[in-house]
Amino acid sequence: MMNQAAAPGAGQTDASVCEVANPDVTSPRGRRVFLGLALGSVGVVFGDIGTSPLYAMREALAHSRGGGAHEAAVLGVVSLVIWALTLIVTVKYVTFLMRADNRGEGGTLALMALAQRALGRHSVLVFFLGMVGASLFYGDGIITPAISVLSAVEGVRGAPMIGHLLGPYIVPVASGILIALFLAQAKGTHRVASLFGPITVIWFLVLGLLGLAHLHDDLSVFRAINPWYGARFIMENGFLGFVILGSVFLAVTGAEALYLDMGHFGKNPIRAAWLILVFPCLTLNYLGQGAVVLHRPDAWRNPFWAMAPGFAYWPILILATAATVIASQAVISGAFSMTQQAVQLGLFPRMNIKRTSETQAGQIYVPFVNISLMIGVLLLVAVFQTSSRLASAYGIAVTGSMFVDTLLAYVVVRRLWKWSLGRTASLLVPLMLVDTTFISSNLLKIPDGAWFPLTLGAGFVIVMWTWTRGTRILLEKTRRESLPLADLISMLSARPPSRVPATAVYLTSDPDTTPMALMHNLKHNMVLHRNNIILTVRTADTPRVADADRLQIETVNADFSKVVITYGFMESPNLPRALKLCRMRGLKFDVMSTSFFLGRRSLVPDTHASAMPMWQDKLFIFLMKNSTNPTDFFHIPAGRVVEMGAQVTV
Predict the structure, then answer these.
(1) CA 451 to CA 301: how far, in whole Å?
(2) C-alpha to C-alpha distance for 205 and 547, rounded to whole angstroms
(3) If you count Cβ atoms within 10 Å of the first and of the last residue's Cβ in the chain, which end, N or C, has fewer?
(4) From CA 228, how far away is CA 247, in angstroms rounded?
């Protein structure tokens, strides 16, 4: 969801990002930039929520008592959908949460980092909520491409003349489209990304026009704007009405993308796109679907395709398929960006993250995530077969992620905005009630498939928890067993070793202790380079770090210097580029004649004094072994790297 437009790059400062995302609309150029951002946001931000009309009304009506043809059911479902869009998207995300930005960036992990900064300390609870929110995002991301593409391709069943002949090929065709989509990720989407916005704009206009064209079928559908019809429908259906809320929620899946992509397009362009184009078109379409069913009760089985006129059926089907592919692409790209953030924040081990565009810094590709998503999506299509069955698995991850956003927002509102408890409660308690209502309704889907995204999310939480806990234990063990750097320098002053006229860079997570590679170099090679740089890479709780704030250089003595390089959680580390800044600040050396020393630890489980259960030990060791080599992750010239190994028990 985050990478389709020309996103701000790693080298940009927060100020430059704000200038791009919030253009001055008083000038002609600013208005053009604003319109371009709004257009781009339609293709990236609203792709998921824009495909919901294909199945949301159908699923909600299908669960109604006695079928979905009764007037009370139609008006009730339409009313619930419209007010869900109003309360969750317009009020919660567009009006409120988009104000809680982390220097222009949004999303669960950005909000987590902002909440940590607001507290002024590391909070285990806030950190855990961030892990849960990120994990649930993956659960949502694996279902969205499957249900979106399947729901569009299923439209061939009602196609004029030959629809009945194409029905048996729906699953193979949908699978083929999805395979092609995932295979295309390695080449990057920047060449066609410029088409995403216009195609999705056309899709929303078609949605609005289809609904508008059928309003006259039964103008009484406008009664659904009154929330009383939705409330009465729930009360009259009792427990069944509560169940139907889970299907109604399908209409707002994708709403979290408004917040997630805020940094790439800016608040105001996204708000304008929602209020001027997306929200009106969605509302018209759902009203039109309701009018069609009121006029033709048999249309409740598939109200969206019942609106499509015969002469335009195939063009709409092709456009719907294109819209679902774009929505899926946005989710896949969002998974890549979420993974990059998680790696930088220390939630995941290092992964191979590739850039697919020289001009658009936001265009990244994570091979492991891509192949994992493809396998998961294809399995879902093969197992569930239809979008109706997949709808039972959809929604629970999104509601959970939205609830996490609300909880994290409480910390920001109270600690950063300094709101009173009463004022905070007046805003967040109603939002939490809405979230918990939808969560409870979606939990009823667990036996029908909602267990899948929950199980997947739980798996990601275990991986993140194991990795963060294991790295902390390993760091503490290394500190206990390492020699303080100051003590080593004193020892070297008393007994100077042989010197090599060159520069050595030692990577370490703790600049105050002697790097393992330095100890092994002295022990086995018995030499010390003339210039030694103790290099530490850290991640800030902000999306990006300006070049002026990236480096901290401390000269310890004539032989040693400490350098701390700080990156934002949305930046990719590039050490050679950062070390060029060191030379500009007086730390003179040639990168291509410098040796980079890395400590490679071979981990073995400690069967006697392990701080983690054995299964977690083994999982951590597996993650460590399969993490990306630091040489590739930090973009260090491979020919300049020296690795020094040691065996460590955990």
Answers:
(1) 26
(2) 43
(3) C
(4) 19
